Amino acid sequence: MRKLLALLMLVALPAVAAIDGEQILRKVDRNLEPESYETYRKLIDIQPDGTKKEYVLYTLKRGKDKLVSLFLSPASEKGRSTLRIGDNMWLYIPDVGRPIRITSLQSVTGSVFNNADILRVDYSVEYRVETAEEQKDAILLTLKARTGEVAYDKLRMSVDKNLLLPTTIEAYAASGMLIKTLRFRDVKDFGGGIRRPATLETDSPLYKGYKSVMLWSGIRKKEFPEEIFTLNYLPRVQELRK
Q1: Does residue 14 sit within a domain?
Q2: Number of domains composing the chain
Q3: Dihedral (CA of 149, 139, 158, 57) sign
Q4: Which domain holds residue 149?
Q5: Considering 77, 133, 169, 241, which has the largest number of Cβ atoms within 10 A of its Cβ?
Q6: What is the pTM of this model?
Q7: C-alpha of 92 from chain center
Q8: CATH number of the domain that 46 lies in?
Q9: Residues 95-136: pLDDT tens digits?
Q10: 62 in any annotated domain
């Protein structure tokens, strides 16, 4: 009789809904930034001796996987621009006069941030969710690269359960080696319904003593024509700021 009552109680309990990791990842993408937007960012590279090098970028994104960035400073980099379409990336240098292919693991600034970090597209475009684990104040997503072209084979993303924004991301190589850790800080209201971290910091066991920081000074929704995200338009990206 006791066994029967216990069985009936179990049947009567409401089913616990499984966590939809893919849906959470898509929400994280949209909470971090609109699908199409413009923004200004500062990249700060900090050397082991404390010296710093700073870059200012004007960045445009269209859809989920097209992005253009223009270097505004320092003077030695001014006028350079980068383009990403899916897994393909290019760097345009005015003195060279033509786009040069670059890879996701390279860095146009020579920092701990690589090109995949600087020219980031939606996480859900590059990764699928392997597991989603609910914790006390966070949801832990384990993400697997969809193709071999992605910079990191696997990500472990800790997501704030209330804000649905990432707090930390550990990036791993296919060998299982930790490549870097990304830390999202200083959640700020940018207006237009955009509330996201204003600071991203990273360090890597591969570059001991080095640190890189990315700061957002503004981000707003904006639509751009398709022609801007082409190789032919790279020399003209600076015209968009006039």
Answers
A1: no
A2: 1
A3: positive
A4: 20-241
A5: 169
A6: 0.88
A7: 22
A8: 2.50.20.10
A9: 998 999 999 999 999 899 999 999 999 999 999 999 999 998
A10: yes
